[in-house]
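User: Hey, quick favor. My workstation is busy. Could you predict this chain's structure for me?
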Amino acid sequence: MRKWKTAFIPALTVVAACAQPSQQKPTDFPPAQRDAQEALTEADHGKTLTLAVNAAVDVVLAGNPTTGYTWEVGAIDEAVVRLVGEPDYKPASQDDKVVGTGGVFTFRFQAVASGETDVFLIYRRPWETDVEPIRKFEVHVVVTP
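Assistant: No problem, here it is.
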């Protein structure tokens, strides 16, 4: 009987620990898949980034397109840094039955030539052209040979 208690108590402790409710809040967003050399988030707003020519950087920003808002490129010098493909959006929930939840937008930029530029992204409703964006993201990028 003693061996059973010795094995059962630690196993029960592990099961109880795994059954704890998630500490993630409904407004938290999952980490984005980051397979570029660098990844920036809203915490990097206003910073300067140095990249070598041909290096890539991901910009990962939380958003919720079900509200009509989306992140888009506001300004960039494409002779120095270019957007690679279209921005990717991943919802926080992979459950198709959950609607209205946010997620993350991922923009990939590549350094194409030496120089400097500001990468400026805006979060707005595309049809509201006369309204200020509700959020902005900007980094200064220095591209070295």
